[in-house]
Amino acid sequence: MVHPIAHRFAGAREILDEIDARTRDTRDHGAETRTIINTYHPKRLRLSVSEVINETLTAKTFRLVMSDEMGVPPFLAGQYINVFADGTSRPYAISSSPAQQNYYDLTLRRVPSGRISNWLLDNVRVGQSLDTTGPMGTFHYNPLFHGADVVFLAGGSGVAPAMSMIREIVDRNLDRSFHLIYGSRRAADVIFRAELDEVAAKDARITVDHVIAEPEAGWTGTSGFMTAETIESLVGDLDKRMVYVCGPQAMYPYVLEQLKLLAHPRKRIRFEANGAPGDPTVQPNWPSAVDPTETVTVTVAGTSFQTLRNRPLLDALEDNQIRPEAACRSGECSLCRIRIVKGEVFTADEAKLRLSDTRFGYTHSCVAYPITDVEIGI
Ligand code: FES
Predict the structure, then answer these.
(1) What is the model's pTM?
(2) Could you tell me the distance, in angstroms and rounded to a whole number, from the CA of residue 154 to the centre of ligand 1?
(3) How many CA atoms lie within 13 A of 306 on its CB side?
(4) Does domain 149-156+180-271 have CATH number 1.20.120.450?
(5) CATH superfamily ID and name for 280-377
(6) Closest atom of ligand 1 to CA, residue 367
(7) Could you check whether 149-156+180-271 and 280-377 share the same CATH topology?
(8) Cα(1) to centroid of ligand 1, in Å?
(9) Ligand 1 centroid vs 61 CA: distance in angstroms?
(10) Would you say 162 and 244 are in contact if contact means Cβ atoms under 8 Å apart?
(11) Which among 52, 258, 277, 372 could bridge 228 via Cys, Cβ 3.0 to 4.6 Å?
(12) Using a 6 Å cutoff on CB, does residue 315 contact ligand 1?
């Protein structure tokens, strides 16, 4: 049968032939192809904790290996795996180097609102198994678009993907300069301090500056916040450099504002969203007449429950033992997509919705808040 677009434009026939040739293997050898794809891009992994490293008083690194002693599937520095725990899941950036394939290191820090991070820090021991996804995420270096001279602004455990990128530069002897500006509350909170300072002292490609918000007496480095002035004084002209940003939620609007003051274009900033907005009402489009602390009714597949308007729908569903697929929990991966059958939701700016999502009533439940009674389809 002739394909309907075969005669629509010059070259259409050749394009269709090429698509056919390139997909023939997948079609004719489906099972083998799937096995190979699953090996390199597994949807689920069962990993075993081989080591727990105390990084600071509030941060630990969990070293995870494959239970069957195979190497772990490959990843790109900056990617995360999603860890299933306590009835939900959370994404954690891998801090180890992609150059070694025996384990993933996940570095977590205790924070007041970090329910799952704190649960893992308190409960996970050597020898325990954890269920995770395979490596995911788009917050990684791209040699075609990111240039060879990058800047990374990190806060707290947001240093994890930077550590992975630095380790890769060293391990693979990459031709790339990397300037890390790492903000912490106190000097004692700096994760990987010894390794960062050592690599920066030895390797001309790596520069590390610590910015301490509440320095103790005797601190001689930079102090305060990551203001435009501080960024400029440490990295000089940002020019066409790619700037990565990773840290706690509150860091993003602040740092974006500082980079704006430096006239750095938005397209040269990559940030890793870390969870749903803590307070959706501060977003510019939150309907001001809506009281976020009131409850509404959510109905899904004939079941109804009450939830607060300022609770992300994904969290509300999980509270009620309904578990849609999810990974990034910050609006990016689209795995948690749901359809709004009835009612109104507020979707945070973080959601990377497609035009068709908006048109046909879909949203990303991890960053969507029910502002009226709603009925949803999953
Ligand atoms: S979990 Fe990724 S978009 Fe919601």
Answers:
(1) 0.87
(2) 22
(3) 3
(4) no
(5) Beta-grasp domain (3.10.20.30)
(6) 4
(7) no
(8) 39
(9) 25
(10) yes
(11) 258
(12) no
